[in-house]
Amino acid sequence: MAYKTHKITLAPTFRQRRWFAQQCGYARFAYNRALADFKTGLAQDTFQSWQTLNNNFNKTKKNYTWVKAQDQRAALYAIKNLGQGIANWVAKRAKFPKFKKRGVRDAYTTDEQSVRVEGKRIKLPKVGWIKMRQALRFVGNIIKVTISRTAHRWFASISVETEDTEVIDNSTHPVIGIDVGINTLATLSDGTKYDNPRPLRRYERKLKHAQRKLSRKVLKSKNWFKQKRKIDRIHYRIACIRRNAHHKATTEIVKNASTIGIETLKVTNLLKHKKLAKALSDSALGGFLSKLKTKAEARGVCVIEADQFFASSKTCSSCGHKKKELLLSERMYQCGVCQYQKDRDVNAAINLRHLAVG
Ligand SMILES: [Zn+2]
Prior knowledge:
Elements: E1 2-9, H1 14-40, H2 50-60, H3 72-90, E2 107-110, E3 116-118, E4 121-124, E5 128-131, E6 141-150, E7 153-162, E8 175-180, E9 184-188, E10 193-195, H4 199-215, H5 222-255, E11 259-262, H6 267-271, H7 275-299, E12 302-305, E13 332-334, E14 341-343, H8 344-357
Parallel strand pairs: 8-11, 11-12
Antiparallel strand pairs: 1-7, 2-6, 3-4, 4-5, 6-7, 8-9, 9-10, 13-14
The chain binds zinc ion.
The site of zinc ion has 8 residues, from loops.
């Protein structure tokens, strides 16, 4: 059995949006209540699992009449989540959980038996059928559905239990090294390049402009919120364009490789680039690599990650000589020892390929 999740954009009506927002609110209420309980020690001495918190919450929720109309699973999953957060904190894997704020990662999860998917629509408990922009990609039992909001859009992440784990033969495909960067998204050892999408630059200018406008508004005034929403939408659009480009590139790369060599992102190095690099780099390139890894895993393609000291750019891919210094302006790698010349990014990608070959 394998679990797969498909995140689909929803097209909810006004009433449905309001319902979603309400359930996110209920999930947040339950989460914050349980966290407060835990903090005051109510459940702390008896805390063994999320069930303790949930039992406590089930007692307190009886004092609120509006709770009855809500999807009870929203609270259950929120508390389950908190339990996981506390367990991570106990195991020193994470910081102590924080209270949730409205408008920050609004989401709720449900799994009632009444969840159904038919073509481009989904049925959720207590709210009924909601239009989806796409049909569900996987066949199987639906385990749970998480409804979430990004900017003005609502999404359903549908987790499905599938049996079909197809085995793909990659053995005839080549070993590929990939260099990721800011100017060029990805450069492969065979010379193929994937550019960062062009519309980004336009939206980034727009974003800067909108942010300047926001700074001139009175903080938290009506106009300030209006402008803030505009900015959220631009962020969302940028993220969409970037994600599409990443999906296209990673799918294509993974389909044509048996083993992939990649570098470990050194965020500090990227920060040495221009200011813009920060916004573009850490999250975006990290997202690209994580998509690549997930897809590779699904297809049985092996991914070899260089450790963070691996000098993929400074090393000559022909003779192995390592330069002491390589300026960012040097677009061509020129080896002083063997006179080898290669595009800087391709040279780095070939080094990563060498590493993957072993
Ligand atoms: Zn050389």
